[in-house]
Amino acid sequence: MDSINIEVLSVVAQQILSILSSLDSLAYNSTGNERSRFMFEGRMIQLVWSCGIFITMNPGYAGRTELPDNLKSMFRPISMVVPDSTMIAEITLFAEGFSGNKTLAKKVFTLYSLSVQQLSKQDHYDFGLRALVSVLRYAGCKKRANPNMPDEEILLLSMNDMNLAKLAAVDLPLFKGIMADLFPGLEVPQIDYTMMKQVVEECCKDCNLQPANFTVTKVIQLYETKSSRHSVMIVGQTLSGKSTTWRLLQMAYNKLAKAGEPGFERVTEYPLNPKAVSLGELYGEFDLAAGEWSDGVLSSLMRMTCADDKLEQKWIIFDGPVDTLWIESMNSVMDDNKVLTLINGERISLVEQVIRLQ
């Protein structure tokens, strides 16, 4: 609610007031039916006496709007206790099969706390509880895939995979220094990407691009990040090489898949610009005049790609600026639920072969 513009909140406040006023004046009719009709936005609709309205807020988040007083006065505030991140990390590590949970949990929490304090402030940085839990779950997947690797090495490798790609150049030595202090004498296990690097360099030459170390490194980092998350955001200024990075990785996947390398499938991309269409055209909307549902570009695309059972990867590319108007509806897709919920009640589940890039 607090991510809505103040102008829209004023309208919402009037709508909520209309509902609450009708609830206050609700009287049971002679048939015992606990419903009555009331005027809402110029239409008579049924009012259910058991309906409830709840608001969740994140007042400390950037870009949030303070609720107007006339809207605040209609609700009873309930404050939530700040969660114990160390305890949550300890329980998550235990559930993922790690030993020495107390020590490891304190180290992970300390790493993220010091990162918030010492690293530069970037819009895309996230060292909160959700990011911490995501790292631990990814570490659990790594542990099951490498049962003979020591727990500390798995955790260190997981934190590298989930964080290094998003760090600015000035923050890289600071972050590595914090990890070295928390895990003294422990080296990050090196993964051999020789074959991938050679293929990426070939793809650069095929596109008449210079295979610079920075370009190849970013493609490898995108590959690592994509392997750990189903939704990936590539952040950078105009002409900084964002589209080139994912296109090179796509070409590398196709080359390796054609060569029959295990773990690589053919990639088909589906690019779209979310700002080129309205929200209704993007997600779908009801035509009030005709009473019909009109499918959106994204909803139809996700339904098609998720229903396709071919053994190939489908990348949905959101090529354009990110803002809260269209990205809010993607929260349930980007988190562990992996579900797009449309306003008509339809739920489209993201399958393993479908990846989101933006």
Low-confidence runs of at least 5 consecutive residues: 28-32
| Radius of gyration computed on alpha carbons | 25 Å
Report helical residue fraction.
Answer: 40-55%
- The level 1 CATH classification of the largest domain is Alpha Beta
What is the annotated CATH architecture of the largest domain? 3-Layer(aba) Sandwich
Q: End-to-end span in angstroms?
A: 24 Å
CATH topology of the largest domain: Rossmann fold
Number of strands: 10
Strand numbers in spatial order across the main sheet: 3-10-7-4
Order of helical and strand elements: HEEHHHHHHHHEHEHEEHEHHEEE
In CATH, what is the homologous superfamily of the largest domain?
P-loop containing nucleotide triphosphate hydrolases
Q: What is the structural class?
A: alpha/beta
Please give the oligomerization state of what you see: single chain
User: Largest sheet, if any?
Assistant: 4 strands, parallel
Percentage beta strand: 5-15%
Tell me the number of helical segments per DSSP (H or I, 4 or more residues long): 14
Number of domains: 3
Mean pLDDT metric: 82
Shape: globular
Main location: other
Domain Dynein heavy chain hydrolytic ATP-binding dynein motor region: 3-243
Subcellular location: Cell projection, Cilium; Cytoplasm, Cytoskeleton
Keywords: ATP-binding, Cell projection, Cilium, Coiled coil, Cytoplasm, Cytoskeleton, Dynein, Microtubule, Motor protein, Nucleotide-binding
